[in-house]
Write a structure and sequence with these properties.
single chain; alpha/beta; binds pyridoxal-5'-phosphate; 4-stranded antiparallel sheet; Aspartate Aminotransferase, domain 1; 15% strand
């Protein structure tokens, strides 16, 4: 019998699997399940982007291209990084991959040695620890508390650094908390990272999804030295509603980018060619559809926060998120209370009860390393969102 390797056996199975399987069964049985679990925009890809892919197909752009990305796309990415983030990269420093997730894997694989420690602010996007472990690294968590807006400070980071610390994962805007770091917080963090020569993996995939006057600031743009210590991750999935197309990219110091280009040429090779043409249209074309989507998310966020405020007497709390399309609903006050004689014990259990009794799907906070909350996405229609929140409140009102 073939046994999976030790390396791959250490990867945790997805904790959300049971909940999404149950939600699927309920839907198949005709139930109206409201899903707050979604991690992707509910908007379609803008028409001009879809058209660019069709044009690429119609004009025979169906062959292999350079493994690390079409030169024309790399040029568009360099222009974007320069104009929007103040970052000067040459095309050879850009690697285009199958989604930002793939870019993150490449970046970690290319830089970690066995036993290297990687600092991850917690709550975290659930893929980070698994990628780090699969590359021989050791995840080390720094607790970003709700009291501090789900953000870690430079001092907290410094306190966790050991001789083995190699990297910091820095995700702003953050999934799952929606936290957006300010420029001055980022400058402080950069200073500590430079002092201890840490690589920063800056996951900026939610860059465009910022509300309420905050702005995105790339940690790589702090100084030329910081840029040399940073690998910037971005992509088109979230900003341009292109999750299924699978295109992300990274920008890195030249030796790292070259090593990743070689590795990618022997692993996945190029992202499908038509998607690369679509990504050029996304980056260089009309930005209005993206602005419209961000505006809609902003309106839902406002409404969601207004309703959550009214739900506080039921034992809920939250931290106002400034970015992405998620909010962590703090619900630890509900733990220990009973529903029909059954005690709610943790975030996984709460999500299971919400799904069973209210037909509401949400993601348990424990998936992101934080059992105190459940994650609600507002990438669903306003109508469904309000109905879903009403159901959550109904559930909580029955607890004793
Ligand atoms: C923080 C974060 N980084 C990266 C990704 C991956 O994006 P992609 O779909 O481009 O692989 C996600 C997707 O959920 C995410 O939430």
């Amino acid at each position: 019998m073939i046994k999976p390797s030790k390396r791959i056996s250490e990867i945790a199975p997805s904790m959300t699997l049971a909940i999404s399987a149950k939600a699927g069964e309920l839907k198949a049985a005709g139930e109206k399940v409201i899903s707050f679990g979604v991690g992707e925009p509910d908007f379609g890809t803008p028409a001009h982007i879809v058209q660019a892919a069709k044009d690429a197909l119609d004009s025979g752009k169906t062959k292999y291209v350079a493994a690390a990305g079409l030169p024309a796309l790399k040029k568009s990415i360099c222009k974007k990084l320069k104009e929007e983030n103040g970052l000067d990269y040459e095309p050879a420093q850009i690697i285009v991959s199958n989604g930002a997730k793939h870019s993150i894997f490449n970046a970690v694989f290319a830089t970690l040695e066995e036993g290297d420690e990687v600092l991850i602010p917690k709550p975290y996007w659930l893929t980070y620890p698994e990628v780090i472990k699969s590359c021989g690294g050791v995840p080390v968590y720094i607790y970003a508390t709700p009291r501090h807006g789900y953000k870690v400070t430079a001092a907290q980071i410094e306190a966790m650094i050991t001789p083995k610390t190699k990297m910091l994962i820095f995700n702003s805007p953050c999934n799952p908390t929606g936290a957006v770091y300010t420029e001055s917080e980022i400058r402080d963090i950069a200073e500590v990272c430079l002092k201890h020569n840490l690589i920063v993996l800056a996951d900026e995939i939610y860059e465009k999804l910022i509300y309420g006057g905050e702005t995105h600031f790339s940690i790589a743009s702090v100084s030329p030295e910081m840029k040399e210590n940073t690998i910037v991750i971005n992509g088109v999935s979230k900003s341009y509603a292109m999750t299924g197309w699978r295109l992300g990219y990274l920008a890195a110091p030249l030796p790292v980018a070259k090593a990743i280009a070689s590795f990618q040429s022997h692993s996945t090779s190029n992202v499908n060619t038509m998607t690369q043409y679509a990504a050029i249209a996304a980056l260089d074309g009309d930005q209005q559809p993206m602005y419209d989507m961000v505006k809609a998310f902003g309106e839902r966020r406002e409404k969601m926060l207004e309703v959550l405020e009214g739900m506080k007497p039921l034992g809920f709390d939250y931290v106002k998120p400034d970015g992405a399309f998620y909010v962590m609903l703090l619900c630890y006050d509900l733990y220990g209370k009973s529903f029909n004689g059954e005690k709610v014990h943790d975030s996984l259990h709460l999500c299971d009860l919400l799904l069973t009794y209210e037909k509401v799907a949400a993601t348990p906070g424990i998936c992101f390393g934080d059992d105190d909350a459940i994650r609600l996405s507002y990438a669903l229609s306003m109508e469904d969102m309000l109905e879903g929140l009403r159901r959550i409140a109904h559930f909580a009102s029955q607890l004793k």
